[in-house]
Amino acid sequence: MKFRIIREIKNNVDILCEIAGVSKSGYYKWLKFADKPERDYKDYLLIKEIFDRGRAKYGWRTIQMKLNSGRGIVMNHKKIIRIKNKYNLVTKIRRANPYKNILKKNQFHRTFENTLNRNFEQNRPYRTFCTDITYLPFNSENVYLSAVKDIASGEIVAWEISKHLEINIVLNTIDNMKNNQNIISLKDALIHSDQGSHYTSPDYIYKVKELDMIQSMSRKGNCIDNAPMESFFGHFKDDIDYKDCKTFEELKLITENYINYYNNERQQWNLKKMTPVEYRNHLLLARQ
Hints:
12% strand, 288 residues, Nucleotidyltransferase, domain 5, 11 helices, 45% helix, elongated, alpha/beta
């Protein structure tokens, strides 16, 4: 009788697992820990606190860095991934930047060779830059953000925000880079952009030439050629609620605050878990 009952239970488990679409090994693994609801829960609370603070936009790398730097907790990335999956902490994925060539180039505009050629592994701060413009939907219209990024350190060295997509947005950005007190010289530094009409305009070309800088441009239709800039704009749009701003001045202020945070507080995995400014100083010190 005893063996017949065991056999019937086993047969029922086989049938139920087949109906549920799960493996028997998975079922028994679940059964093993079903009476231990506290397993992972304390670690889950730590991870969820960081995850919620990042508005569901942090992946395992950022969570791991913030556990380490903020709390001194070392947690294996596999465990973080497992807990995120277990408690359905799904990270929001950034959408690609839709900004392309907004204005049509005319016969007076000229393009430049792709000198950078996706060589994003740079180790000399303030010698290789990339720049671009993105749009920000705001009060039923668009506001435009122009920025320059140091490829070596990831630091945003200049930016300009405007209600109008005119040539002044990029000219003012270059002026702001020139006035950056941390940059001693821009002579022979490379600045990379797409082939948008702003960057091929005679006024912009003259402004760059005035600083003895070298222009480089992405190939037509290859946004990956300017990936570092696309990456920053993606994080910017994910991390701040710019659509909730009531005035242009408020939008400008949160942009300034975010760029300060991005440069000085936001750790990055590919910068040896440093902030851009920390990594810039690290690179400069290594060259002494």
